[in-house]
Amino acid sequence: MSVLEARNIVKVYGKAEAEGATTALNGIQLSVTKGEFLAIMGPSGSGKTTLLNILSGIDKPTSGEVLLGGVMLHDMDANSLAQFRRKQLGFVFQDFNLLDSLTVKENIMLPMILEKKSVSEMEEKVQELAGLFEIEDILHKYPYHISGGQQQRTAVSRALVNDPQIIYADEPTGNLDSKSSTTIMECLEKVVKELSTTVLLVTHDVFAASYCQRIVFIRDGAIHSSLEKKSERTKF
Ligand code: ADP
Ligand code: ADP
Question: How would you classify the pairing of strands 63-68 and 2-13?
Answer without folding.
Answer: antiparallel
